[in-house]
Amino acid sequence: MAQFTAGQDTLALEGAAAVRGAFHAIERLRARGAEGRGLSAGALDLLIRLSAAPDDGLSIGKLAQAVGVSSRNVTGLVDTLERDGLAERVPDRRDRRSVLARITPAGLDWVESFRRPTQVAMAAVFRGFTPAETAQLRHLCLRLVENQRQLDQHLSQTDGTNAQP
C-alpha cells in the first residue's frame, strides 16, 4: 500500500480497507440469512423498515430516501414483497393520488422469525467487543457515512451530477 501512496501515510487507506472488509463480512452473513428465507438483502432492508413504520405505511419516496436508492428500485422491491404476501400497497388516506407500502401480518411474522437468529449471529460477530467498543464503532461508522454524504453532495455540485443522498 505504501507504494500506491508514494510513501505517504497509508492509515486512511488501511482504515477504508478494514471498513470495506467488515462491511462485506456482515453483508455475506446478512445475505445468507435473508436468501435462505427467500429475500434479497434489499428486500430484507425494506421489510425491516416497514416493520418499524407507522400502521398506515410509508410512501415509496420515503422508503427510497431511507434506504438511499431510487424510487424505481423500491417499487421493484415492494413488488417482490407484495408477491410474497409480506407487504401490501394501500391508498394514502391523506392524499388520494398517493399509495403507501405497508407490512402485512405475514411480513411481521417473517421479521419476527428472522430477529432471533440475527441477534445470535450479531452477538457472535461482535464477540469480545465491550458495549463501549460497539457503541464507538457505531459512532465512527455513522461519521464515515455522514462524511461520505457531504463529499458526495460537494462532488455533485462541482461536477453537475445528481448523486444519491
Overview of the molecule:
This protein is mainly alpha-helical. The chain folds into 2 domains: 11-127, Orthogonal Bundle (Arc Repressor Mutant, subunit A); 129-160. Helices cover 65% and strands 10% of the residues. It contains 6 helices and 3 strands; from the N terminus they run ααβααββαα. It has a 3-stranded antiparallel sheet. Strand 2 and strand 3 (95-103) form a beta hairpin. Helix 1 crosses helix 5 (105-125) and helix 3 (60-67) crosses helix 4. It is globular. This is MarR family transcriptional regulator. Residues 1-146 form the HTH marR-type domain.
- Which parts are unreliable, with pLDDT below 50 for 5 consecutive residues or more? none
Structural class by secondary-structure content: mainly alpha
Shape: globular
- Terminus-to-terminus distance: 30 Å
How many helices does DSSP assign?
6
Order of helices and strands: HHEHHEEHH
Write down the CATH class of the largest domain: Mainly Alpha
Radius of gyration over C-alpha positions, nearest whole angstrom: 19 Å
Number of DSSP E strands: 3
The CATH topology of the largest domain turns out to be Arc Repressor Mutant, subunit A
- Can you give the helix content as a percent range? 55-70%
Our count of domains comes out at: 2
What is the CATH-assigned architecture of the largest domain?
Orthogonal Bundle
CATH superfamily of the largest domain: Winged helix-like DNA-binding domain superfamily/Winged helix DNA-binding domain
Mean pLDDT: 88
Largest sheet: 3 strands, antiparallel
Physical arrangement of strands within the biggest beta sheet: 1-3-2
Beta-sheet strand percentage? 5-15%
